[in-house]
Every structure is written in structure tokens, then in C-alpha cells.
Design goal:
15% of the residues lie in helices and 52% in strands. The chain is mostly beta strands.
């Protein structure tokens, strides 16, 4: 499948009242030979490919070190979906990922994630949406970022940007 090329990524993080971090991770591809579109014609092949991709994502997630307030937690990709962005040549693969940790409501919280450093193969953006009344205090990342309205964070990298493999977000919850 060398002809299938990743072209863009989005990640969206939200936080539930039960201290569960919910992440939706979406990868857009250029697939000129319509490999993924043709999978829709063969349910068995489709399921095998989705299972393979989900297993690969969980393997990648297992290599990350995620710390919530100093305690290591594990992320898991629970579901995967294949969509198309207006054409058979533009597949998008979405993962729903969860992890949870002990958070301090009314206090300071620290999220840290360590992963392999590298160079971005495509543009990507990461959005954090914290609950009403939350406040982002500090961000440490090699990506460009902006805090919006105290509780929203946008981080981004462009193709060719180096990333250090470490993120830290310090925030308060109501």
C-alpha cells in the first residue's frame, strides 16, 4: 500500500466529568488507486484491515508514556472508522481513544506525554477542549500552540517540523 499517503492529521481531546480523557484522532490520506474504497466491496477484507489498523494504533499507544498528576496511565483505541472526504481517493481513518487518571477538581492537574521524537510527515493540529470553568496554566511542547479563552488549546505542526516527543499541559478544573 505504498501508494496510500498520509496528508493530514487532527486530534481532538475532551475531558468527561468522570475524569476520562476522550480523544478522536483522524488521519486523512491520498489514495489515488482507491485501495480503501475498494475494501468496502469485501466485508472480510475491510474488517481485517480495520482490525490491523486498530491493533497498530494500540501498539503505538502502548509505547507512549502518559502521566496524569505523576501517575502512569494507559490509552486505548477502542474503535476505528473509515470515511471519505468527498472522493474515493480521499479516505479518512478515525480512531476513538480513551484514558483516565485521578484529577483534582478545584486544583492543579498535570498531563504529560512522552513519545518518540521525529519530523512531521504531514500537517497536523491538536485541539484540547477543557470543561467550563477550567483554566490552562502552562503548556510545554515543541509544537506551535495558542491558548484560547483560558480553557481551549490548539497545537500544530507543519510537514517537516521537528517534534521533541514530549508534551506537558498544566490546568485547573472547577
Amino acid at each position: 500500500m505504498e501508494e496510500v499517503k498520509p496528508v493530514h492529521g487532527h486530534a481532538f481531546f475532551t475531558l468527561s466529568r468522570e475524569d476520562v480523557f476522550n480523544q478522536i484522532l483522524i488521519f486523512d490520506y491520498l489514495d489515488p488507486r482507491k485501495h480503501y474504497y475498494r475494501l468496502l466491496e469485501d466485508e472480510d477484507s475491510y474488517r481485517k484491515e480495520m482490525d490491523r489498523l486498530l491493533k497498530n494504533m494500540n501498539s503505538l499507544l502502548s509505547k507512549e508514556v502518559i502521566m496524569i498528576n505523576g501517575e502512569k496511565v494507559s490509552a486505548e483505541a477502542l474503535t476505528i472508522n473509515l470515511d471519505f472526504r468527498g472522493a474515493a481517493e480521499n479516505p479518512a481513518i478515525s480512531f476513538y481513544i480513551e484514558f483516565c487518571g485521578k484529577l483534582f477538581h478545584g486544583g492543579r492537574n498535570v498531563y504529560e506525554c512522552s513519545y518518540d521524537e521525529g519530523v512531521a510527515e504531514y500537517d497536523y493540529e491538536v485541539y484540547w477542549f477543557l470543561p467550563r470553568g477550567s483554566r490552562i496554566i502552562e503548556v510545554e511542547t515543541s509544537a506551535d500552540y495558542e491558548i484560547l479563552g483560558e480553557r481551549f488549546l490548539v497545537m500544530w505542526a507543519r510537514r517537516g517540523d521537528h517534534y521533541a516527543g514530549y508534551e506537558k499541559i498544566v490546568f485547573t478544573l472547577p
